[in-house]
Amino acid sequence: MKQNPDSYLLYEAGKFITYNFRLKIVMKQAVNAAALETAAQTAFQRFPYYAKRIHILPGGEIELRDNPLPITVKPYDSKHPRMGTVEVNYHLFSIEYEDNDIYFNIYHGMCGGCGAMFFIKCTLWYYVKEAFGVETEVGDIKTADTPFVDGETAYPDLAALSDDEPLGSIKKDSVYIPAADYARQLVSMPFRDSKYYELEIEAKDFMKYARSNDGSPNSILSALMFRAICKVTSPKIAKAIRGNIVCNYRADVGCPNTYRDLVRMLSVYYPRELENKTTEYLSTVTRSMMYVQMQPEFSAITMKSIFQSMEDVDKKRGLLNKKLYSLTHSQHAKPPFGTFMVSYVGRDEWYGLEDYIERIHCITDGHLLLEVNALRDKFYLTFMELNSKHKFYDAFCEAMREENIHFKELGSHERNLPYTHLPKMSKG
Fold first, then answer.
1. Are 285 and 279 in contact (CB under 8 A)?
2. Please, what is the end-to-end C-alpha distance for the chain in angstroms?
3. Cα three-residue angle 326-83-1, rounded to 5 degrees
4. Average pLDDT of the chain?
5. Which stretches of 100-149 are DSSP H helices?
6. Rounded distance, CA 83 to CA 104, Å?
7. What is the pLDDT of residues 160-199, one digit of tens each?
8. CA distance 47 to 102
């Protein structure tokens, strides 16, 4: 690994792959633009590792160099923000706002939701201070005067990773993939006619339901997604379905406090014959497969594969060769492939900020993707699919109704994701 590990995903950036995401924070009151501008600039100074600019060396290596320019804060534009360009002061972070909504646009190679929360919470803490004259409880929120936490910028040490073999294995049999939906997207603009759907569930009721069905939020939602897909697919075509459940493995590889994006997928294989099983049965099956794969040894295997991939990219000469290799050997294109994904890595503590926040949604790449965020007494679901007829979303809602899980539909919106643009190659 010759470059900053945050840079390697940029080799895969292209017209149909964004690898960026948006955290949408819906405030209880309309956004005060001046207060947000001041808050964002104050907060951004606390995180110099986010303040980077893309630079391409003559040999094709992508570097991330320090960027002293301020982070961009501007009104929401329905177009796709171009990360890494003059439009956002060449940063890989930017902020937009509209009415009560604040959008944090973020390059995913630098951090995921866990790492992004460092900056987002800090910004919101200063926003509340600027807009309302209130200093809410700080808790573990990193403010401008918070010293760096030990391991805040850490990356795993390859030599320290375990060589032990995990107990058990991951089933890699073929499963149903909604290939037609992908194909339609690849001949048009990315995510055209693609929306995301917002849902709200009472946390107390949902957790009671989960416990009564031998489940956790992840296992229950995965079981419901399986049910939904069965509703709208033929058993002859969808003979088996796989759910991928996001697992934060930072602690497994010795970096529990890092901002970096260290997540992997737990694979849950559902043969179609499970279609008529109870939710409790499906949840138990899901949790058992999750449990086996949560061994730290699996995390070590994942991390070693990532190190090897970066070393292989380093060996390629020229930007084009590095990009072609990265696209064809992507960590995101290795089996076992999933039919759907559920992303929930636990509830964040927002302290006094919850008095000012209405809800939170994560908008990102992916087909049949369920992102989950939580506040004190609510779960907020963001459902994404490439199928413009939203058949999977409708089936998911039907599956919840059948289980008497009460939820509120909060509407749909265009999934306008940011794109990352690479600059021209430097002459030196």
1. no
2. 21
3. 35
4. 93
5. 113-132
6. 12
7. 999 999 998 898 899 999 887 777 665 655 555 588 999 9
8. 19
